[in-house]
Design goal:
homodimer, six-stranded mixed β-sheet, 2 domains, alpha+beta, five-stranded antiparallel β-sheet, Fumarylacetoacetate hydrolase, domain 2, SH3 type barrels, 414 residues
Chain lengths: 414, 414
């Protein structure tokens, strides 16, 4: 595998094999602008492009303006082929003995201007998010929650393996009161940004769905379970989830994950035979081997106080992202650049692999013991949750950076 | 009540008391631009503004650019006070013996350029729609559907009167197939566009919610009931509703409906006492007396073949639009200019007042007889649905124009 002329630590999520895209600003330049992450540096693409950085890539020459935009939407809208060209070109520029050393490697002035230490850059929302659809294709999570609320015999609804859906635990409503959630939870998810739009009335066929997926981010779909139980029937979630969602700062392009295609490990004959024809895929390796880790940093502790809440893998998703795109549009519904499609909670089958406290503590009945002696049923004020994820091996990780958030005390409403 | 120097038929939905805003284009000028409707004319606000039409309204002078925009988002974002000034000013301009006759009344050249016959203008989406939330606060519809799926004893979920929610009929899933819907339905709804945004984390208090509502449109939330039953459990609706939604072309400003405030006619003590404190309103007249009519134009017939499917009234909504805004944001969720909040289906209590075929035909069990001898359980290819609505009395109607759509044959997917 190729090495870079930059020194990149073997453990970095941003190896030469990755080249994820994001939006940054710095104290020296508060302008929001595109960048890629490489090792512990960010390459400022605005600065890079405006100083002839792309001079050896003719196919992008008439599109250089996208690198001066405050979001990645215009770059995403250029389509998969351009994304491929730009990512490959940047790999060549950064690669030891790569092409065009004069562009950056042997151009100390541009290096000084365009290569910024990651700790010195502020990340911003990479795309202006359009519509947002959260699916529920983590089979184990669906089963685990189903057991909690309907028992093992009815854990999965009969339609579960036929169509991508989400969960709606049945509840016993009481007279409601407004108070801070006592069951604040997380959901470990993988999400995809749409690049290529489709016209209203023009469904995206399963064999073309890949072209519409710009790339991926980690997601934490914060959930107030007590509110959710109350409002969920018959609505489905609303205010229990609309207060905030966190994504990781760098978009890992679909191309970067190609080498890590694999089969879902939760698919079975019932799924393969039961899935509707318009969702059937030619290839079997439509999942990704992406390993996740969710850490909790208890209130009052520093980063050294972090401990692992769970690990996970994207192979535990039953449906592929192309299937989500095709199902979303089979009615003619149009997707737009910047729309975000999330997987739903990703869980394994045993404690330590559950992507939510709901599962890990059996809805609060079995508290988790933390190293600092405290216990948790759900999150407490001051708790930090840090989701990381990566494919590949040491020296060549394709990672996402941190999807991190801290729970602040509620602001009294009345 | 004031009269206009323009001749306006007494039956026009666009009386001087209305002045609804929309986006138009014409064959002569394909540019999308703002306009208001008055009688059977549209006043081109781009032409009007660029020819000194607003010269007597200083408060708008630095904002005239909003009238050259292809959507009303920028105008909406100016806030309720500016909306009030502009609407009142236009009323004065159009009013018999009104102020500033030189601006338009005695300016034949500008009249010729800016006043366009409605049949000659093409309407376009009035605002770029941001997020869209469909509620379910039509109490009678909730009860009617509840009876159909759960029986009269459990028609309404215990939480129904406490929070604005939507419906999720229980279903008995079978192995699915992909085919054109055989239960294509309508939903008569009223929807509000958001003007003033709120910051993430900054809930909108109930006593300030009015400031965030730009105005109202009629909505038809087309629904494929057979698909809905299949996917609804446990998801709630997705592909059964994401294929299309129709709204009326002119936005009736919140100010124009002020005179028609009234009490909800479905509220009761259980609602008044059970509603959460953050949703309690000082005034009781938080509903609107808006009368609706839904007409069906059977396949193959012209406009003279239309017949009334149902009538309705916005007084049948249990929650007010300010309550929807406040509930949506009580978690800190942010609303943006152009977000659309819909009421859910509006129904009365007897045949002829049901806002959906689901209710009117008891889920297809009791077909409706049409004048042309045909029957309908749900919609057929070629059927047209035309929703109209108005407040006020002859000569002074505050109406919405037509929310109209025609069912085209399905395009075979495979």
């Amino acid at each position: 595998m190729a090495r870079s002329w930059l020194s990149i630590s073997p453990g970095s999520p941003f190896s030469l094999a990755n080249i994820p895209f994001g939006i940054i600003s710095t104290q020296a330049n508060p302008l929001h602008r595109p960048a890629i992450a490489i090792g512990d540096l960010a390459l400022d693409l605005d600065k890079f492009a405006s100083n002839g950085g792309f001079s050896e890539l003719p196919s992008i020459s008439q599109h250089l303006a996208v690198f001066s935009e405050p979001t990645l939407n215009d770059f995403a809208a250029l389509g998969r082929n351009i994304h491929h060209d730009v990512r490959t070109y940047i790999q060549q520029i950064l690669q030891e003995d790569g092409k065009y050393p004069a562009v950056l490697k042997d151009n100390p002035q541009l290096r000084d201007q365009a290569l910024l230490p990651l700790p010195s850059v502020q990340n911003h929302l990479p795309l202006k998010v359009g519509d947002y659809t959260d699916f529920y294709v983590g089979l184990n999570h669906a089963y685990n929650v189903g057991v909690l609320f309907r028992g093992p015999d009815n854990a999965l609804q009969p339609n579960y393996k036929h169509l991508p859906i989400i969960e709606n635990p049945t509840a016993t409503p009481k007279v409601p009161i407004l108070r801070p959630s006592r069951k604040l939870d997380i959901e470990l998810e993988l999400a995809a940004f749409v690049c290529k739009p489709n016209e209203l009335g023009d469904p995206i066929r399963i064999d073309r769905a890949d072209e519409h997926i710009f790339g991926f981010v980690l997601m934490n779909d914060w959930s107030a379970r007590d509110v959710q139980y109350w409002e969920y029937v018959p609505l489905g979630p609303f205010t229990s989830k609309n207060f905030g969602t966190t994504i990781s700062p760098w978009v890992v392009l679909t191309d970067a994950l190609e080498p890590f295609r694999t089969r879902s490990r939760v698919e079975d004959s019932q799924h393969r035979d039961g899935v509707l024809p318009y969702l059937r895929e030619k290839r079997a390796d439509t999942a990704y081997d992406i390993r996740f880790q969710v850490a909790i940093q208890p209130a009052g502790l520093g980063a050294d106080g972090r401990e692992i809440f769970c690990t996970g893998n994207a192979r535990d998703l039953l449906f592929s992202f192309p299937q989500l795109v095709t199902h979303h549009t089979v009615t003619g519904c149009n997707l737009n650049t910047g729309d975000l499609l999330a997987s739903g909670t990703i869980s394994g089958v045993k404690l330590g692999t559950f992507g939510s406290f709901l599962e890990a503590t059996k809805n609060g009945k079995e508290p988790l013991a933390l190293k600092n002696g405290e216990t948790r049923t759900f999150l407490q004020d001051g708790d930090g949750i840090i989701i990381t994820g990566a494919a590949g091996n040491e020296g060549h990780y394709v990672g996402f950076g941190e999807c991190a958030g801290v729970i602040l005390p509620v602001v009294t409403y009345e």
